[in-house]
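Re: beginner question about structure tokens

> Can someone show what the tokenized structure looks like for a real chain? I only ever see the sequence side.

Sure, here's an example I had lying around. Input first:
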Amino acid sequence: MPIRTNRGRAAVYRRLWGWPLRSPRHLAASIIIFVVVVVALGVIIPRLLDRTPSGQNTAAPPSTSAQGTQVGQLPSSATSLPTKQPAPSNSAKAAPPAVDAQLTAELWAENWIKPPPGNDVNKWLKQLEEYTTPEFLAQMATIDPRNVPNKLTDKVKAVKSTTSSIDYVVTTNLGKVSITVVKAPEGKWLVNSYTKAD
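And the corresponding structure tokens:
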């Protein structure tokens, strides 16, 4: 039969609130029930909050900042290691050959065909260092100076020229050689490669 008076409701509430205090057994049972409810809520609620709708992709990883740092990473030091010279761009605009690039190609070719006495690779590379990119100079360390031509039979001539790189051809006693000169970031022209020309 429903409770119709405020006094009746108060009596029911008093009995509910007073039940844990009636005996030590009731109090222990109340504490256990309370702990179980709290633990259950602590397990269920996070699972309900973390649940994502099916078919929805997981969030993309956070993008790195402009300097490449992420949360928890130290920023890179101000002093950076030497970087590789930029490769000649295919979209570079055509331009007349620069005078200093021509001079670099000529001086490089003259030093290239003149290995020092004893064919010392280190001395040979030292005389080419001023006109060569560091990356290409490291590759040239594997070359035996005795295998390079020993005479230029014609002048160094530009065959293709852009704002960032120039290809030259020079004729030697062992055939034609194509030399590529690139513009370094500091504005200096340096030899970046050479190959046997057709």
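Each token stands for a local structural state, so reading them left to right follows the chain. The first strand starts at residue 157 and ends at 161.
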